[in-house]
Amino acid sequence: MTETGIGTSRSTPATLHDVAREAGVSLATASRSLNGSTRKVNDEYRKRVLDAAARLDYSPNLSAQAVARGTTTTVALLVADIADPYFSSIAAGVVAEADHERLIVTMAATERDPERELELVRTLRGQRPRVMILAGSRPTSDPTEGALGEELAAYERSGGRVVLISRNEFDFRTVIVENTAGAEALARELVGIGYRRFAVITGGEGLRTAADRVEGFRAGLAAAGGTLDDEHVVRAAFTRDGGYDGMRQLIESGLDGIELVFAANDVMAVGALSAVRDAGLTPGTDVAVAGFDDIPTVRDVTPALTTVRVPLEELGRRALRLALGDESASSEGAVRTEVVLRESTPGITR
Amino acid sequence: MTETGIGTSRSTPATLHDVAREAGVSLATASRSLNGSTRKVNDEYRKRVLDAAARLDYSPNLSAQAVARGTTTTVALLVADIADPYFSSIAAGVVAEADHERLIVTMAATERDPERELELVRTLRGQRPRVMILAGSRPTSDPTEGALGEELAAYERSGGRVVLISRNEFDFRTVIVENTAGAEALARELVGIGYRRFAVITGGEGLRTAADRVEGFRAGLAAAGGTLDDEHVVRAAFTRDGGYDGMRQLIESGLDGIELVFAANDVMAVGALSAVRDAGLTPGTDVAVAGFDDIPTVRDVTPALTTVRVPLEELGRRALRLALGDESASSEGAVRTEVVLRESTPGITR
DNA sequence: GTGAATCGAGATAGCGCTTTCCCGCTGATA
DNA sequence: TATCAGCGGGAAAGCGCTATCTCGATTCAC
């Protein structure tokens, strides 16, 4: 095992006490000079403290500050899966905004398990974060149903701020995404370019986001004149492989005249695309595919994927701003989505 | 602004003191029952404390524990860009392993800016994390050169553990990836299936990881009999768009008989693929493309991308284990890579 | 039966900070 | 000259915990 070469003598980090002594001032003065205080401190003294701090390479102990101040500079972020581009984009937004506010982000992954989620909220509460952001909806039929709400409420009662991203299940601040409206608009446009017979691949039982999107899609079809039979709605995991499986399932049952398959999110759609290809068919031509989210990847798959753009980073940004009480963040209403037609839905001339 | 409906009376979280009082025992006993201690505590007392804690919904203040114990349960993770699949996969690994060790991960993004990186290290040091993991290499020609090393060394001196992922620039513990060997193997295999004339798209000036991969690729070609002219090595940003630009550049200068373009990482390769298509050419057929990393996406692009697999999640896991002093993690040597041939390099019969 | 261990609960001294509170000082006011 | 606000530095009381220390009550050996 390699040792660092730059010096080996083990020492504890300099404390404020050390700085004060080195500067020849009191602890109070040192504290006041280093971390803004309402009280002024003589320039001469301040300079001495700053110099001493630099000399000792002092770095304030955030835990100690937290204890003394009774408040932290931490934001806790809970996502289903960090490697999923949907969540990593949101996370990037949260981190960027947090950095801007000089806050520190701690991150955890629920792996889509409600029990884990509850557990994590409990643990993270110990950090006394200023804000807790939860992204990714849960099954509505959830054994821990009330418990999470209780826990979050308790957290808010003790001064924290909860913000949910695109999961309107509790009565907390929420960054609302136009899931329903976006899917509806998508459906209309697809009918507009000639598609009539649709199928849908959606997430597991009762995932709220998925449900909203499917519902919106249905509504759009109903209004515009497309058909979606119930047996053409397949459920699968809310992941790339889920999308693959769902599409394979549809193909195996004969495709049955289906012209376009709408997957409730892009990672599923991308999986679906691959399933189409693996079945020896040509996506776009033999069967069109559309997704939802507009994750970065979908520009680069072939055919490029038609989808509904959700400004994911912005979601993360907004969540934090909302938590911090930024009025504009809340007054902006639901986050706008936008249909993006690409080659995966070339259209049908009838 | 919505208020939570579940109860509004604002209160501070229960403290250990509250629990002790509620249970009718001393602070010390409460502490001992709730958080493991070497000392035993009477079952009767322990139960009373546990009950009281549950009743008050007590959650220990981690900051206070950190101050009292003089050690935290935090891991700090620095990556270049959270939304980049390379880093988000690594992050997922770190978080998973951390969770397993009951540690908490705080995350920050350097955005590939050395100044920012240094700044972040300074800030995060205030957290007194047990471990600091840095992923993503920096330009070798870096204005802050020594400063980062100094800072990290100081951190280690004060008892922390630094682990670098795939950036062998300092003398700290490092998770080494077989960048050179992997690229060399790739080159050999590509020559083996008939390619002779190559081009390379690599990252900005002096990025270590990129440099190693290119060097390995060169060595492989030299050994197996492929050619790579210096004017066919283009530099671009280490991102999807960089890859796109790099490929466009190559195409604009006439492709010049190039049969295969190797991009130093997958996100660049994916961008390159799109550039080929946008130029009206067929990737795989008109020009073959290969990447490095095997990020999840590349299975789903068309043609599927030939690449060198790096077990990214495992990298993150290993980094943490290494930091925690897991012997096996360090004795395993460099992380193995594996060439994965896919349709983007169908081969040439000569 | 006595002294030495042993046990385990409670009191308390910190941990590294912030923030009162106190107090000597200066300068304005009368 | 006496009075009284500021002003600003220092002492010290916490913040919510852990860990050492104290000390009475048991237990045990001989």
Task: Characterise the protein shown here.
The structure is a homodimer of 350-residue chains. Chain A has 350 residues and is of the alpha/beta class. Chain A folds into three domains: 16-60, Orthogonal Bundle (434 Repressor (Amino-terminal Domain)), CATH 1.10.260; 72-175, Rossmann fold (3-Layer(aba) Sandwich), CATH 3.40.50; 179-309 and 336-340, Rossmann fold (3-Layer(aba) Sandwich), CATH 3.40.50. The first copy, chain A, is built from 13 helices and eleven strands. In chain A, β6, α9 and β7 form a beta-alpha-beta unit. Chains A and B meet through α4, α5, β2, α6 and α7 of A and α4, α5, β2, α6 and α7 of B. The structure holds a DNA duplex (30 and 30 nucleotides).
Task: Summarize the topology.
The structure is a homodimer of 350-residue chains.
Chain A: H1 16-23, H2 27-34, H3 43-56, H4 62-69, E1 74-79, H5 85-100, E2 104-109, H6 114-125, E3 131-135, H7 145-157, E4 161-165, E5 173-175, H8 179-192, E6 197-202, H9 208-224, E7 227-235, H10 240-252, E8 260-263, H11 266-278, E9 288-290, E10 307-309, H12 312-323, H13 327-331, E11 338-340
Parallel strand pairs in A: 1-2, 1-3, 3-4, 4-5, 6-7, 6-8, 8-9
Antiparallel strand pairs in A: 10-11
Chain B binds a DNA duplex (30 and 30 nucleotides) through helix 2 and helix 4.
Total number of helices of chain A? 13
Distance linking N and C termini of chain A: 70 Å
Enter the CATH topology name of the largest domain in chain A: Rossmann fold
Q: Name the CATH superfamily classification of the largest domain in chain A.
A: Response regulator
Which terms summarize this structure?
homodimer, 350 residues, alpha/beta, 434 Repressor (Amino-terminal Domain), Rossmann fold, 3 domains, five-stranded parallel sheet, four-stranded parallel sheet, 11 strands, 15% strand, disordered N terminus, DNA-binding, transcription regulation (chains A, B), Lambda_DNA-bd_dom_sf (chains A, B), transcription cis-regulatory region binding (chains A, B), LacI family transcriptional regulator (chains A, B)
